[in-house]
Amino acid sequence: MTKKKTNNYIDNEKFFKEMVSWKKKVIKAENLGKKKPPVTDYIGLCFMEIAENLIRRPNFASYPFRDDMVGDAIENCLMYCSNFDPEKS
Asked: CB–CB of 22/40 below 8 Å?
């Protein structure tokens, strides 16, 4: 039997661990009254890959402003990623 090929373009376990680690830093910074730390490069790369791969779906084939949609998706991910709750994931 051949091994089934998966279509995952990000490592879900690594992404989850990175998000949990980053969320702990956010909570620590909030408790100390400091600014939220920026997301890691890996998290940002995952947001970009997710947005880029979703825009390739047939639902969005005829949209004229696809690059703008990708940019908006990444922006929304960055704006709301601090709402991440590891207990619900």
From this structure: yes
DSSP string, 6-52: P---S-HHHHHHHHHHHHHHHHHHHHTTPPPPPPPHHHHHHHHHHHH
Tracing tokens 């890996």 back to the chain, one arrives at: 42
Query: Residue 60 half-sphere exposure, CB side, CA atoms within 13 Å?
Result: 13
From first to last of the 89 residues of the chain, give the pLDDT tens digit. Answer: 566 556 678 999 999 999 999 999 999 999 999 999 999 999 999 999 999 999 988 988 888 898 999 999 999 999 999 999 999 97
- The number of folded domains in the chain is 1
The one-character DSSP state at 2 is P
Q: Is residue 13 part of a domain?
A: no
